Amino acid sequence: MRTEYASTGTGAAAAVSQGKLMLFLLLAPALIWLVGLIVLPHLDLAVLSLRVRVGPRQYEPSLAQYRTFIEEPLYWHTFVRTALMSILATLITLLLAFPVAWIIAKLVRGRTKSLLLVMCLIPFWVSETVRTLGWMILLRESGVLPAVLVQLGLTEAPVEMLYRDATILVGLVYTSMLFMVVPLISALESLDDTLIEAAYDLGGNGPSILRQIVIPHAAPGILAGCIVVFMLTLGNYLTPTLLGGKNSLWFTEQIYTQFITRFNWEQGAAFGFLLLGLSTAIVWLGLKLTGQKFGEVMSRS
């Protein structure tokens, strides 16, 4: 009997070990991708940002790159401007995406629902470059929209609509709308319609139901969409540069300038880490204020 129990225990232990091995093998590609393309490059950038060049192939540990950021008004002004514009773009995207997600999740069914989803996806069938160039064709002084305004008599001459903050916001919202709509749809679809009907039966109105039932239920989807959109807008380079021109004052342009134009990789690495720290701090603050956990939130995205 003891021999039988011992053999059973040994077999169970072997099965557990084999299961762990299989799990490791399944996770190995993801771990290699994570370490090779995310962890190691960030560690290398950290080393670059904490040194200063003193001669050919000679470096010394230093915080000079971060002092340069603090002492140069253009850098921290661009940094703050990028953060505020990204937050504003995220809020505008949320306000526009929420009604769209509500219609898709609750008000339409069947082919109409599929059609609306496809319409949300269509702009992303082409690259971001093509989409941004499309906005340039529409909004430039010799473009479509200024000509229409002249023909309607709303303006006497074509107006240059590019290279403005509002234009940058339009481009950022347009390029990130889908990433807000999808998690909102996922969150709203799980909302039981009988809860809303019961709230109306008990004397509730639209604003109170939205505030007390819909928004709390959709909070993980809202936060997931805001995190994704904020990160995309904060790190966007192409849209602000093309629609805002040389005066876009977007921080990713400063990073590009340091790396590509000035070949100052140490300063560019420091700027990159500052941007990473900003995004991490704002995401942490959003999670803290809403009482959500990052894993639960991102499972809705």
Description:
- The chain has 301 residues and is mainly alpha-helical.
- The chain has a single domain (64-298), classed as MetI-like fold.
- Helices cover 78% and strands 3% of the residues.
- It is built from 13 helices and two strands, in the order αββαααααααααααα.
- It has helices spanning 2-49, 64-71, 73-107, 110-121, 128-139, 144-151, 165-189, 193-201, 206-234, 238-244, 251-261, 265-290, 294-298, and strands spanning 51-55, 58-61.
- The protein has a two-stranded antiparallel sheet with strand order 1-2.
- Helix 2 (64-71) packs across helix 12.
- The radius of gyration is 26 Å and the shape is globular.
- It starts with a helix and ends with a helix.
What is the compact description of this entry?
By secondary structure, this protein is an all-alpha fold.
List descriptors:
two-stranded antiparallel ribbon, mainly alpha, globular, single chain, 3% strand, 2 strands, 301 residues, MetI-like fold
